[in-house]
Amino acid sequence: MTSSFPRKVIFDTDPGVDDAMALYYALAHPDIDVVGITTTFGNVHVEQAAINALYLCTLTGRAIPVTLGASQPMVKTAEAPPTYIHGVDGLGNLPRRVDATGQLDTRSSAQFMVDMARQYPGQITLVAVGPLGNLAAALALAPELPTLVREVILMGGTVLEAGNVSPVAEANIWNDPHAADVVFTAGWPLIMVGLDVTHQVILPLALFKSIAEHHQHVATDTLYHAVDFYSAFYSQHDQIVGQVHGCYGHDVLAFVVLTNPELFTLQTGRVRVATEGLAQGQTIMRRKDISYPQHGWHEEIPHTQVCLKVQANACKDVIKTTLMRNWLRPSA
Ligand code: BDR
Ligand code: CA
User: Fold this and answer.
1) Stated pTM of the model
2) Is residue 328 part of a domain?
């Protein structure tokens, strides 16, 4: 395995305001090379997710393959998209859009992941920030996938922090708990970036205003508009966020752990997902080395590295510095 940078990343996403923030961070960071964007349902329907991914590529002047993926959960009935958080269009109800260029790659998101992993064995990092159906489908297509990818970093779940769609569940995992359990037990190097850390990093709306003023570019104006909408939701519904008028950056932290792992404290252990009932979507971590009688925690279950703490201020500084870099190209 090479440790070289920039790291080849497939970004699996449901854009989504914080997904857009994360994509910008990845495009702006010199250590990350986004080789594909695979879309899924979640914050919006999958067709809209793909439209948004192509649109963000147009705005930032990038020609990156974009694919269409899972349109619904593996087993449960799909939930309605949370339009009150991300807007009906997923980007905070943009008042107008410029014409998007770029065509969808005709492969499914899962097939694209498999093809790229075979083309670049040991080199691809999957950064997944939506429900995990595409990764589960890719594993079904190619059970050897865990030996082909370098690592998987996912934004989702929570261990000690309260959930955001139920007292115990985080949205991405709750949206497709069966797929998530497949991903947590697949046996690839896996890092979980959940609410335990994303709820520690509150990004003020003023940060996105200053980024837009700095760049004077349609891409960052668009992000500022989207974050304004998203921050209104968080500031109203979460007292702590309301104090600074801002939002959680959730998805962007999946990239910060890649570029700045020293800012995170991780614990290794087995993680499983509750798929039914009141605890549906809960990510349960075996945090003590106890031999439990209940099936499902035995030695064959692979380990996950779970982010439990983050240096929040340093993390915010990294996000700001990265997005202030000279990374934007003329819109395509
Ligand atoms: C996650 O759910 C989505 O709303 C966000 O984009 C993020 O991926 C946070 O729980
Ligand atoms: Ca997301």
Assistant:
1) 0.97
2) no
